[in-house]
Amino acid sequence: MRVLLTGGAGFIGSHTAVALLERGHEVIVLDDFSNSSREPIRRVEELCGKQVTLHIADLTNAASTQKVFASESIDAVIHFAGLKSVGESVRDPLLYYRTNLMSTMVLLETMALAKVKKLVFSSSATVYGVAKDVPVSESSEVSYRLSNPYGQTKAMIEQIIRDAVVADSALQIAVLRYFNPVGAHTSGRIGEDPKQTPNNLLPFVSQVAVGLRDFVSVFGGGYDTPDGTGVRDYIHVMDLAEGHLAALAHLKSGVSTYNLGSGIGSSVLDVINTFSRVANRAIPYEVVAAREGDVSCSYADVTKATRELGWSTHRTLEDACRDAWRWQSGNPHGYASQASPRGVLAVSS
Ligand code: UD1
Prior knowledge:
Layout: E1 2-6, H1 11-22, E2 26-31, H2 39-48, E3 53-56, H3 62-71, E4 76-79, H4 86-91, H5 93-114, E5 118-124, H6 149-167, E6 172-178, E7 180-182, H7 201-209, E8 216-219, E9 231-232, E10 234-236, H8 237-249, E11 254-260, E12 266-267, H9 268-279, E13 285-288, H10 303-309, H11 317-330, E14 346-348
Parallel strand pairs: 1-2, 1-4, 2-3, 3-14, 4-5, 5-6, 6-11, 7-10, 8-13
Antiparallel strand pairs: 9-12
The protein binds uridine-diphosphate-N-acetylglucosamine (UD1).
Uridine-diphosphate-N-acetylglucosamine binds next to helix 6, helix 7 and strand 8.
């Protein structure tokens, strides 16, 4: 299959590119590098010994997106592209609504023109909002009153997709609600590379472990959880990548929505202790006030993905911490850690 990955140079996109190439698929990446660079694509090619076709284009621009579709034969699209910083979305909501909504609408319109019917969309467990029972299943209500515009765009895009499918019954779309993607490819060559101070726990812990930061602030110690810290469902990014392949293989008419998580809840202290063990170093932390908008406990009911996609996770939190540590210790400053020769890439525009 020839699969177009929007945002394919990002954290989840680059790992999914590896999984696709390893299974014999062809990968076309459309990215504007606003939050990434060419380097992860170069490393994906190096890891797989295969070429990726790269289009540097802005997905909110209909003309340049149409140009990409006109120049490629595309069987399916995985739509990762989008802004994803919760804090930034609160400070600049219009940027988030414009970028995330516009890019998806341009993509759907361009797919219609090009008669591409298969789509996998990166959604987030954030759409469940705060009122929920754990484990969270796909039948839990989606909240349209989320505490931040980033999450709101995910819920709104899901609705746009559901409406688009009503109008075109030939569309086959999978909406994947990610829980907390962590870890890195086991080679340590690609991984998560936040441009600013990480908002998410794992990259923050990794940066403390490698000495870039002094300590982890644990947001809240008084939750109603076994150790008082927040509980989340951490999923290894390669398990998540494989979830995309399973979703592609099982696409059917209409919209199918799946939780992609491990189904296991781990606390902030579980993460810090596990990382500390695999990295064999102390990770200092301080318990501070809870972060506004956080829920105490969220983990996935993955029954539906297991049953319908034949997919489940194989890697543990320990595997994720070990792989994240291999990536972080080998690339303390992410992809900027070492100057690299330009790879052989087919670049357009
Ligand atoms: C966050 C976002 C969510 C987004 C997801 C993936 C919020 C409220 N939610 O989810 O919308 O889809 O990331 O990008 O921001 N923690 C600390 N110290 C830190 C960072 C995090 O203690 O420095 C704790 C949090 O309180 C939480 C857990 O670690 O209990 C995981 O946090 P995080 O990685 O930010 O993920 P989520 O809060 O689940």
